[in-house]
C-alpha cells in the first residue's frame, strides 16, 4: 500500500476523531512509524491492522470507516496536486487514476531518461 493512502487514512482519523485516537490505533495496530513517505510501498498488513483497530476503537463499522476515508481522499490528494494531474490527463475518476498510477510513473521516468539523454548528447557535441 502506498504511503499516500496510509497518510490519507491517518489524516481522516485525526480530523474526525482526534490525534489521541490515532495514536491509540497506531499503538494497538503495532505500527511503529509516525509518518509515511508518499511514494513508498508499505506492507498491506499495515492498512489491514489500522482499519481493524480503528473500527474497534472508534466503534464504527468497516463500511462506515472506509466510506469516510474514500470521501476524504479526493480532498486529500488535492493537497499533493494530483487534482491537477487528473484534469491534465483527462481522467474522469479517482479509480482510473489509482489504476494507472504506476504506469504514469513509468511514462514520466521514461520521458525523463529520453529528455536527459538527448540534452546530454547535444551538450557533448
From TrEMBL:
Record flagged with keyword Transmembrane helix: yes
PANTHER family noted in UniProt: GUANYLATE CYCLASE SOLUBLE SUBUNIT BETA-2, SOLUBLE GUANYLATE CYCLASE 88E
GO biological process annotation, one example: nitric oxide-cGMP-mediated signaling
Annotated protein name in UniProt: Soluble guanylate cyclase-like protein
GO molecular function: guanylate cyclase activity; heme binding; nitric oxide binding; oxygen sensor activity
Segment forming the signal sequence: none
Domain Heme NO-binding: 2-104
Pfam families, sorted: HNOB
GO annotation, cellular component aspect: guanylate cyclase complex, soluble
UniProt-listed InterPro entries: H-NOX_domain_sf, Heme_NO-bd, NO_sig/Golgi_transp_ligand-bd
Source superkingdom: Eukaryota
Stretches that traverse the bilayer: 80-99
Keywords: Membrane, Transmembrane, Transmembrane helix
